[in-house]
């Protein structure tokens, strides 16, 4: 192999990614022993609910290109390549998926501008450059594009919707080989397949495989293997994973054997015995590969090779970053056998059955320095409060006031994918009282105990409110509710809680039939609906252009909020 120069590219993927599949590789004689130092640093966080799920693209019968206004046989810039009037561009979840798809496809110096069904323009930035030709032309017959983009999307998803730093390795030159063992010492897994297409994958030379095909296999970096990490990205206990390990649960990429030979053999820069990082669950004679030139599934007779997979490395310690365009549920590991979620229907708050699907069990996470405020989606201007913060103090719902007792330090437990949530005021951890698995158990703060499952919370993303991330302008015809008031409005549904609004001006609109609205902490800033200003109680004015336009002026408190119903 030609010696490659050193290159590290830091890419900030603002929203997330998909987790991948499994694969097979080469014979031992093909292992690279050079000193390549290449690869790509990235950040994941795309929850599978946003695009690559059964309702938005990736399921056992529908690939991304099937019913979502996306076609690989036409350029993305054309109306037949990425539709503005149906599919992914028409909702916030789909647009998040498009943002990652463009990030994977186009180079860092390129971008794509597309309009939604209302004529609002969105700018999607390029980043990695795995398939730049797709911007203006069809790539449906390109295995490099279909496989590479599929692996890239899967490598950037975690079902929790939390941003996690990653290191990528791939046979594709846009990413390359080489690892950063200092900052990303743990090999998480390898992802491959084709999630872009449905039916027989004859277009990429794999007629025996039916798409969408979404695979991953476990890396050697985590002792628990897929049982504890990859399947749910942050933890196998996450739900909504849109991929499968065809080699079997807990099977690493290096494990499958055929005719007494290892199927997946690594291509790596330090391919020597003992090269596996600390914490690996095995140290095979060939060492731990950077990644794989080739994955095979099926393997053996009739083997199918996938040559554009992506291997992900990450750290077993990282600072989680939550996405303010998502809402979240929190569930204690003490209730793993019958999941309960934190619920704000009472104060002190309790845990309640996850299956109830209550709006009071959904929370907004807002940054405040290195801490986070946690606000009920159903309670405008309210925050979780640790009060005095002494052991056994129940966590209550209180009016947001910016105090330390309402700030929470959230720490990742990387090895099982859960989180500790500690009051910034005292450092004590949120805990299920008595470690009870029962519905109705009170949430309290207590001394942090690393072995206590009742202090470990699984955090799962969801979406209740629309967002307009990436919106760059509007070409509206003057028929939307905000046409005469403000530009680039954020759409919202009938039952909506804004959560804390920053001190910048904001514009929202809806065509829902609202019954009422409420404002909180609007001191020092203006609030209006359809041009009518309110300072206290709100009486809804007449609809304009079939709906309501909400405007919030700049200034005032950063925890100002409003809600509608």
Task: Characterise the protein shown here.
- By secondary structure, this protein is mostly beta strands.
- It has three domains: 28-314, no CATH class; 325-462, Trefoil (Acidic Fibroblast Growth Factor, subunit A) (Trefoil), CATH 2.80.10; 476-565.
- The chain has helices at 92-105, 143-155, and strands at 40-44, 111-115, 120-125, 162-170, 186-201, 206-218, 257-258, 261-262, 295-296, 305-306, 310-314, 321-322, 327-332, 340-343, 350-353, 363-368, 371-376, 382-385, 396-399, 408-413, 418-423, 429-432, 443-446, 457-462, 471-474, 490-491, 496-497, 506-510, 517-520, 527-529, 532-533, 548-552, 561-564.
- It is globular.
- 53% of the residues are buried.
Number of domains: 3
Q: Pick out the low-confidence regions.
A: 1-38, 43-63, 270-275, 465-477
Instruction: Give the oligomeric state.
Output: single chain
Strand fraction: 25-35%
* Envelope shape: globular
First-residue to last-residue Cα separation:
63 Å
Kindly state the percentage of residues in helix.
Answer: under 10%
Rg calculated over all Cα atoms: 24 Å
Arithmetic mean of pLDDT? 75
* Structure summary, number of beta strands: 33
Largest sheet properties:
6 strands, antiparallel
């Amino acid at each position: 192999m030609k010696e490659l120069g050193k290159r590290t590219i830091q890419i900030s993927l603002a929203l997330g990614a998909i987790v991948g599949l499994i694969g097979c590789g080469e014979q031992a004689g093909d292992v690279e022993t050079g000193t390549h130092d290449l690869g790509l640093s990235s950040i994941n966080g795309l929850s599978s609910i946003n695009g690559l799920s059964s309702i938005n693209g990736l399921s056992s019968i529908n690939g991304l290109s099937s019913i979502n206004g996306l076609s690989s046989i036409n350029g993305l810039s054309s109306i037949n390549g990425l539709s503005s009037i149906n599919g992914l561009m028409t909702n916030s979840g789909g647009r998040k998926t498009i943002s990652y798809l463009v990030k994977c496809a186009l180079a860092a110096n390129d971008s794509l501008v597309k309009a939604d069904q209302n004529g609002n323009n969105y700018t999607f930035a390029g980043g990695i450059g795995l398939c730049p030709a797709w911007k203006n032309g069809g790539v449906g017959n390109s295995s490099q594009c279909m496989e590479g983009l599929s692996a890239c999307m899967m490598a950037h998803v975690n079902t929790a919707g939390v941003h996690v730093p990653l290191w990528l390795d791939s046979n594709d030159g846009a990413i390359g080989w080489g690892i950063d063992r200092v900052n990303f010492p743990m090999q998480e897994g390898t992802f491959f397949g084709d999630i872009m297409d449905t039916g027989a994958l004859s277009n990429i030379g794999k007629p025996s495989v039916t798409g969408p095909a979404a695979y991953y296999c476990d890396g050697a970096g985590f002792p628990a293997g897929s049982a504890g990490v990859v399947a749910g990205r942050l933890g196998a206990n996450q739900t909504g994973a849109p991929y499968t390990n065809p080699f079997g649960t807990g099977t690493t990429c290096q494990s499958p054997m055929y005719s007494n030979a290892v199927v997946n053999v690594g291509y790596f820069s330090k391919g020597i015995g003992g090269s596996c990082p600390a914490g690996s669950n095995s140290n095979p004679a060939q060492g731990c590969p950077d990644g794989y030139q080739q994955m095979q599934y099926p393997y053996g007779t009739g083997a199918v090779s996938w040559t554009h997979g992506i291997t992900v490395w990450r750290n077993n310690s990282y600072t989680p970053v939550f996405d303010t365009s998502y809402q979240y549920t929190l569930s204690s590991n003490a209730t793993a056998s019958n999941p309960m979620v934190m619920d704000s229907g009472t104060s002190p708050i309790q845990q309640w059955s996850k299956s109830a699907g209550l709006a009071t069990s959904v929370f907004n996470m807002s940054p405040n320095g290195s801490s986070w405020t946690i606000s009920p989606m159903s309670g405008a201007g309210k925050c979780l409060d640790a009060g005095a913060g002494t052991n056994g103090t129940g966590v209550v719902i209180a009016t947001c006031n910016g105090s330390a007792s309402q700030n929470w330090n959230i720490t990742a437990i990387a090895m099982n994918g859960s989180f500790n949530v500690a009051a910034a005021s005292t450092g004590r951890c949120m805990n299920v009282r008595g470690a009870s698995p029962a519905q109705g158990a009170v949430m309290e703060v207590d001394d942090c105990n690393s072995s206590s499952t009742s202090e470990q919370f699984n955090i799962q993303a969801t979406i209740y409110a629309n967002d307009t991330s990436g919106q760059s302008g509007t070409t509206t015809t003057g028929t939307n509710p905000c046409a005469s008031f403000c530009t680039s409005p954020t759409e919202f549904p009938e039952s909506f809680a804004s959560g804390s609004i920053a001190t910048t001006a904001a514009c929202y609109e809806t065509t829902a039939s609202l019954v009422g609205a409420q404002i909180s902490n609007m001191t020092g800033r203006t609030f209006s609906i359809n041009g009518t200003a309110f300072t206290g109680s709100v009486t809804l004015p007449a609809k304009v252009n079939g709906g309501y336009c909400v405007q919030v002026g700049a200034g005032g408190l950063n925890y100002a909020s409003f809600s509608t119903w």
